[in-house]
Amino acid sequence: WKEQLMKVDLAQLQQEILQYSQVEAVEIIREFPSSIHVHIHEKKACAKLLLSQKGKRKLLLITSQGEFFAPIGYTRSILMVLPTISGLHKGLLANQKIVQFEAIAQFIHLLQMEVPDVYDRMSSLSLRHFDPSLEEKWWILDLHLKGGLVATMPVVKASEAFRKWKLIFKNLSQ
To answer: CB atoms < 10 A from the CB of 42, how many?
Structure first.
């Protein structure tokens, strides 16, 4: 048994695990006399993207850095909670990432924390008008809510916009 433990190629095992797109990093430690410890760090999804390629639909998850990965082992209930990104255009892609997605991820986080009732009503977040080549003050997103309402929101000054949203929703619900 101990001899078989020594035959395990840790580098090859690490490379095999890293082939899964949702694996961020893996650490493998041979611990004598009889163990190998494997620590897998998974990428964390902050949104989802539905792609149509050659008549087939493909679901990808997006990290806060804008990286894509396939959802392996995610339950339907977890996937349903993640906001859907729409309106993705080629100008937003570079090196298999969405350019400046960190700002969008921050927007999603602020929306969830500051206006949770709006976050819960969101059906999708469109990047159709998002242009990272412009100055940050012009970065905007279309927030699509269930029921058909669409709100065009600034990305960078989102907290200010959310304060106004709170007032609007408070007045609407009275």
So the answer is: 14
